[in-house]
Amino acid sequence: MTPSVFAIVSASSACRAVLGSPPNMRFYPFGEAPQGKPPVYAVWQMPFSTPANYLGQVPDADNARVQIDVYGTDQAAVTTAGLAIRDAIQEHANMINAAQRPRDPTTRNYGYMLDFEFVTDR
Q1: Among 36, 34, 46, 37, residue whose Cα is nearest residue 6
Q2: Are 73 and 51 in contact (CB under 8 A)?
Q3: 17-22 contact pairs (CB < 8 A, 24+)
Q4: pLDDT cut 90: percent of the chain above it
Q5: Number of folded domains that form the chain
Q6: Which of 1, 30, 54, 111 could form a disulfide with 101 if both were Cys (CB 3.0 to 4.6 A apart)?
Q7: Distance between CA atoms of 22 and 44, rounded to whole angstroms?
Q8: Which band of pLDDT confidence, cut at 50, 70 and 90, is reported for residue 37?
Q9: pTM (predicted TM-score)
Q10: What confidence score (pLDDT) does residue 114 get?
Q11: Domain of 74?
């Protein structure tokens, strides 16, 4: 099951302050961000999901890893957006990793990456 990442982020006033509000929120599924977006935006993906396996019984939950990447032209704004997303999602998932990414050599955008693990009951 895919966690409701967009619903969680869009419900946060701090996230809306830096990424805009739905339906124009700059928070997209990976690969769906339009070209020429404003200075700060974020994309998310679920690189994998695994069942909570047990011997002798069907799994009752799924563990989904969600990666969120924040990009923008201003490092402070990118970090602010990353921290807002972190604060919104940590109430719903375990944070695995957060790190600044090297500046992209082509776009010159700064990046901030976050990884979370959601445990979703079946």
Answers
A1: 46
A2: no
A3: 17/84, 18/77, 18/80, 18/81, 18/84, 19/81, 19/84
A4: 86
A5: 1
A6: 111
A7: 16
A8: low
A9: 0.91
A10: 98
A11: 5-121
